[in-house]
Amino acid sequence: MRRILANRAVRRVASTIGTLFGVAVFVFVMLRAIPGDQITAGLGTEAAALTPAQRVALEQYYGLDQSPVTQFFSWLGNMLTGNFGYSARSQQGVLEMTLHSLPVTFELAVFSIVLALLLGVPLGMLSASRTNSPRDAFGQVVSLAGLSVPAFLLATTLLSIFAASFGFNPNGQGFATLAEDPLLNLQQMFLPALVLGFGIAAPILRTTRTAVLEVRSEDFVRTARAKGVPPRRLQVRHVLGNALVPIVTMTGLQFGYLLGGAVVVEQIFSVPGVGRQVLLGIQQKEYAVVQSTVLVIALAFVLVNLLTDMLYRIIDPRVRAS
Amino acid sequence: MTALRRSPAMLAGTIVLLVLAVVAALSFAGLLPYDPIAQNPPDRFLAPSGAHLFGTDQFGRDVFSRVASGVGNSALIAVVAVAFATVVGTLGGLVSGFYRGFADGAIGGVTNVLFAFPPLLLALSLASVLDRNWFTVAVAIAIVYVPIFIRVTRGPVLSLREIEYVKAAVSTGQSRWQIMLRHVLPNITSIIVIQVALSLSWAVLTEASLSFLGLGTPPPAPSLGSMIFEARSLVFIAPWTLIAPGAVVVLLVVGLNLLGDGLRDTLDPRTRGKR
Amino acid sequence: MPRGALSAIGAAAVLSIALTSCSSSSGPVTSTGATGKSGGALVVGVTSDPDTLFPWKATQFTAVNVLQNIYGTLTEFDKDLNVVPGLAESWQTSEDGKKLTLTLRKGVTFGDGSAFDSKDVKASLEKIMDEKTAAVARASLASVKSVEAPDESTVVLELTGPDAALPANLATVNMAMLSSDDTEEKLNATPNGTGPFTLGKRVPSQSLTLARNDKYWGAEKPKVGSVEFRVIPDESSIVSAMQSGNVQLAVFNDPLVAQTAQGGGTITVTKTPQLSYHALQLNAQHGDLKDVNVRLAIQCAIDRKQVLDTAALGEGEVTGPITAPAFKSDPAQRPCPSRDLAKAAEYLGKAGKSGGVTVKAIVSQGEYATSVNEAQNLKAQLAEAKITLDLEVLESGAFVDRWVAADFDAAVALNGGRPDPDGSYARYFTSKGNLNKVAGYSSPELDKLFAEGKATTDPAARKAIYEKVSAELEANAPWIWLFTSYTYTGTTSNVSGFVPMVSGSLQYLRTTSVA
């Protein structure tokens, strides 16, 4: 038994390393496939005016004169020793940048997921409790709205309504981390988390509804109901308990996405998260910034996956039984 | 037909989509009141009227004709993208969840690589590398969606694998593919169908977001996404240029979702007849 | 031959939009800041933070404007773009025009307290001229043979020939005077200039604060104690931040955003015409475009006003090649002053292309607000003259790549103009210009005119020469000049004293005060 567990752990670690290596190769190749380099990104069309000698000087400056293979392995080797590269633009190490931006994105993701779960799960259960009833219709309308309203539109609208009508715009002030100024930070997180949470609530609501409906039709629930288990207990213990697998899958999925995918919302609300760090890195063609940050996001993502899988084992009686 | 009668949601969704399909068909058949691309500057920013049902935009183009042709383009992109993602993703999820072992590891690895990649970077790279047209946009969207289908199907397949009748089937010596197609696939249909419906609407919205980043369908061919983005800043001057494509996107998305729900209720053996 | 060189001016306006996006991480870094000075704090909303703090390589809008307030230049522009004394109190050109003698201001110190003198000027100019430095303004000093510093406050530039544009070329922040002890590495972390402000606190990608330099040499010291450039990636979000009073000043490029800002009533928006111009660049080295008649047919088939009206809602002015106020071209001075399809057909006929031509145009998406709209309208207009414009819409990085490599038939572009026409166009349209490959056109006539313009110091005579340049350009239609647009300066009601410039420069932050 212990050996099996050890094996499993080793396999997991090996697959994680494999994934990260895949991401490293992929991001490295992709970045270089995008036209332009740090020189043209910095100088724009003025790069055309550079003399060949100037261009050579700049290539040396940015380390672009080395072969791609050398660049790849020296970057990867440096990563392993904790040197994530340096952003000339920010005058800061990428590790340091990421240590500031990742917690911000993480916090935003947690708040968004919490809001989404608070909205999605109860409404999903409500919907499923009586299909084709007004309450089901209500749930459907909410989820349709969540699915149909693009985040950028909701974000821009909310921001302008709050700022223009109530003068409420905590995001217009300099960003404060949770440690620096908790109250301001929570205010600044509120609208972006609301926008993201509303969008995520929809798939969670639908997944909950479907899962609950499916579980309810299964034999053990029917048996429990026949045995006279009280409806409330039946609902929470038997139905929700067993419907958790898809809900957890969906939540893990969405959480992973939020780590790298909240860019537009981060933009509109000036939240200094990893999404912006990557996007800016792409625009500036600061390869080290993009590569290292994406790799960190990938690592976070793998960890979330691991957590989701572990949760399966805890929640799902079928997987647990095996 | 009986299914339609039984499910009002599906009926509503079908009607909405049929109306939009007719409108889109008009555009493909060249039966629109105006050329969606031809400009007529003297008629800029005309409010909706009998001549121009949804008004005109800043180039004096008829918004109705553009919306109609945009529905066609957007739907085409969404359908192609999701079809690709569904086939590849479901297959991957089935194999991954059922075979476990090496296949699971390999597919899981690729999935994780794709997932861990910020979709924006993926889309940006693809759009910059490839020669951009509606098909490459569809492929870019599809690649973002493949891992979702893998993940969403793999979990339930994992669970199903442990269920008695699947185990029983394994013990009777049926081939793995037979079991997968006969016993596992039907049981995850509802999940796939839901995912398809969700994905179709997401794909429409993703195309819109790509257009926002300048990576969507290249102009002047109208797509609903690019129309919304062109009109976003015109909202104070000519609100109809935003409202028309916006409302149609919402209709399209709502229609797709209603149809998806209806389909699920009809297809899923366990929820059927239980309402 | 001073051409080239990225001036702060103009190019900044273009780049600002190219970089309208986001920024990266958070976290405090340099913090040497003097805060809590008298005079209040001004917050300027910007869409991105500086991509470099080294003035000789700065081309991006925020970088140029931040650095312009930290560093000093030998000459400066006033609000009407006249060249006025800066660190050089006066300058004199020798009889033969081959020697420029600058007398430096005395008692000027750098932010770190060290004195500024001719040694620093000599070191700065020589480093800018050195190719290894990769300074963007290098080509502006092409006519400089050597730099001598006979005494502490005199600098003599030996020139290969007369160069009337040199004083103006010295006014950009890319020609900033650095202390001879400083290195690029050091300045990237801690800027050290002679300007009205010094760097205070910087939080990369979030904000950068300037503190008033109490030792600034100018007669008038800055009114505000500090200026914070706060990064808010989305222009509409800047509007919201101004409405809620968090930001007091911002420059917008999108007329629609400006309109939204004005709509609320709390923000005053000032329109300023810009030196930068929108143009359809034709590559006269490519295919059918080699024939001047085809290019003229394109010129005749385009109604510039229609492009302006449809793509930019009429927010701008139809323009000829030269946009600098003192040398402005008359937009009607060209073979086809207004759209003339008959004439377009005639030109096509002369070229033997009555059946029509096809031109592939690159268009950047996302670099500036109106690009794709302009392209769509141009396509529609040209179609009526049997000219097919195939649009290739590119992400801005890809666009820049193709543009830099001159890999296009035609390009829909927004180019930065400069206060001096020599600076604007000699680099494009003389046979030895460093952007001539991109422009794809030069002629002996133009070479001669530009050389004359450079050798002439009398303003009226120069103006006459550049009128000829302008006419020559329009008659050969290497590019189709379309229109210039505005920038919009938004200020809240408690801000006064800011003067927007046609160059887009924020140099008048030093006269701005906050109530």
Quick structural gist:
The complex is a heterotrimer of chains A (about 325), B (about 280) and C (about 525). Chain A has 14 helices and two strands, in the order H-H-H-H-E-E-H-H-H-H-H-H-H-H-H-H.
- Quote the beta fraction of chain B: under 5%
Distance between the termini of chain B: 18 Å
CA-based gyration radius of chain B: 22 Å
Q: Output the structural class of chain B.
A: mainly alpha
Number of strands of chain B: 0
Coarse morphology of chain B:
elongated
Oligomeric state of this protein: heterotrimer
- Mean pLDDT reading of chain C: 87
Major beta sheet summary of chain C: 11 strands, mixed
**Percent range of helical residues of chain B:** over 70%
Structural class of chain C: alpha+beta
Distance between the termini of chain C: 47 Å
Helix-residue proportion of chain C? 25-40%
Order of helices and strands of chain B: HHHHHHHHHH
Low-confidence stretches of chain C: 1-36
Strand content of chain C: 15-25%
The mean pLDDT of chain B is 78
Summary keywords:
heterotrimer; A: 322 residues; mainly alpha; two-stranded antiparallel ribbon; 14 helices; 2 strands; B: 275 residues; 10 helices
Secondary-structure blueprint:
The complex is a heterotrimer of chains A (322), B (275) and C (515).
Chain A: H1 2-33, H2 38-43, H3 52-62, H4 68-80, E1 86-87, E2 92-93, H5 94-129, H6 134-148, H7 151-166, H8 182-216, H9 219-226, H10 231-261, H11 263-268, H12 274-284, H13 287-315, H14 317-321
Antiparallel strand pairs in A: 1-2
Helix pairs in contact in A: 1-13, 5-6, 5-8, 5-10, 5-13, 6-8, 7-8, 8-10, 9-10, 10-13, 12-13
Chain B: H1 2-6, H2 8-28, H3 63-99, H4 101-116, H5 119-129, H6 134-161, H7 164-171, H8 176-212, H9 224-232, H10 240-267
Chain C: H1 11-18, E1 41-46, H2 61-68, E2 75-77, E3 83-85, E4 88-93, E5 99-104, H3 118-129, E6 144-151, E7 154-159, H4 166-169, H5 184-189, E8 197-203, E9 207-212, E10 226-231, H6 235-243, E11 249-252, H7 255-263, E12 267-282, H8 292-301, H9 304-312, E13 317-318, H10 341-350, E14 357-365, H11 371-383, E15 387-395, H12 396-404, E16 410-415, H13 421-429, H14 436-439, H15 444-455, H16 459-476, E17 479-492, E18 495-496, E19 513-514
